[in-house]
Design goal:
Radius of gyration: 24 Å
Shape: elongated
Number of domains: 2
CATH class of the largest domain: Mainly Beta
Order of helices and strands: HEEEEEEEEE
CATH superfamily of the largest domain: Cupredoxins -  blue copper proteins
Number of helices: 1
Structural class: alpha+beta
Strand content: 25-35%
Length: 140
């Protein structure tokens, strides 16, 4: 009789303990994501990194893939007489990147200088020439 009275209490305590552990893990995971997104991955750069050149013309973006470290510089230069309208993200859907204005027009000889402060993989495209694409990968 005593056993049957304790079993529901033990069962209830076990369930509560499991809930507390699961909630704690979810909170810890959320805090890690917040730190990763707002912390080191987007923190101001204290060093000057390498400079990566990306040229844009009617025919292509070259190179089509760039792998850089956080705090490196990216210089995008138009080399032809056509205007280019550049944006991060897949064509028709833009994704913000710190320090970059999507849809800015880049004319012949003009350049955009960007410090790569946020790690991740970022597609870049040209609205004027939708087949022109590049991928910028930024590592920590």
């Amino acid at each position: 009789m005593v056993e049957s009275m304790l079993t529901p209490k033990i069962r209830r305590s076990t369930i509560i303990l499991v809930y507390v552990i699961v909630i704690g893990l979810l909170v810890a995971h959320g805090i890690w994501h917040i730190h990763h997104y707002f912390g080191q991955a987007t923190a101001a750069c204290s060093r000057t990194g390498a400079v990566h050149q990306l040229t844009v013309s009617e025919q292509n973006m070259s190179p089509s893939r760039i792998v850089a470290k956080r705090c490196d510089k990216l210089v995008i230069t138009a080399t032809d007489a056509t205007n280019h309208e550049l944006a991060f993200g897949p064509h028709a859907r833009h994704e913000p990147y710190p320090g970059f204005v999507n849809d800015q027009v880049l004319g012949q000889g003009q350049a955009i200088n960007l410090t790569l402060v946020q790690s991740g993989v970022y597609p870049l495209h040209d609205h004027v020439h939708p087949n022109l694409r590049a991928t910028i990968t930024v590592t920590n």
